[in-house]
Write a structure and sequence with these properties.
By secondary structure, the chain is an alpha+beta fold. The chain has a single domain (10-163), classed as Alpha-Beta Complex (Peptide Deformylase), CATH 3.90.45.10. 25% of the residues lie in helices and 28% in strands. The chain has helices at residues 24-38, 126-139, 150-163, and strands spanning 45-47, 60-64, 70-90, 98-112, 118-121. It has a five-stranded antiparallel beta sheet. The protein starts with 23 loop residues before the first helix and ends in a 9-residue tail after the last helix. Mean pLDDT is 90; it is low at 165-172.
């Protein structure tokens, strides 16, 4: 079973590497992520950088499609974003913390699937849009802490550090 990386892991603040080879190991890793996500219905999506695994440096995520099935997205890139709305959002990397923050109301995201086919997705629901923006941020080395005011971020870090006494301060 994979473990989640702690909130202050440098892994969460580094841009992920592009997937250049869809090897058997990459496919197996995606399946492990899907299993981990599937075991907890509260998790709508999971990026590779959020877990401890030899391939967690790769820019890929799994998410729950509108039909409930797990879908993989490799090398996601937001190529269009419009309007901004305030959403309420949490993250498995920041347990017990959730925030109101700005997110695009509409996005268009490109990338590839596990078969190497091009993906060009414009989500049709606000939740899908939010998930695509959130997970794409993970691939760029950003968590939701980078989207909130400093005083809110500092309060969240204190809360998380109390839970994890050995945690170092995050430098977003």
């Amino acid at each position: 079973m994979m473990n989640f990386v702690p909130f202050d892991s440098p892994q969460l603040s580094r841009p992920a590497d592009l997937v250049t080879d869809i090897s058997t190991e990459v496919v197996e890793f995606v399946m492990e992520l899907a299993d981990l996500m599937g075991s907890n219905q509260k998790i709508a999506a999971l990026h590779a950088v959020q877990v401890e695994h030899p391939l967690s440096h790769l820019n890929l995520f799994v998410y729950r499609g509108t039909d409930g099935s797990a879908k993989a997205f490799l090398n996601p890139l937001v190529v269009e974003a419009s309007l901004v709305r305030i959403v309420h959002e949490g993250c498995v990397s920041l347990p017990g913390c959730d925030f109101s923050l700005p997110r695009p109301a509409h996005v268009r995201v490109t990338g590839i699937d596990l078969d190497g086919n091009d993906l060009d997705i414009t989500p049709t629901t606000p939740l899908e849009t939010q998930i695509m923006a959130h997970e794409t941020d993970h691939g760029l080395g950003r968590t939701i802490l980078t989207k909130v005011r400093k005083d809110i971020r500092d309060k969240a870090i204190r809360k998380l550090t109390k839970r994890i006494p050995s945690a170092a301060l995050l430098n977003p």
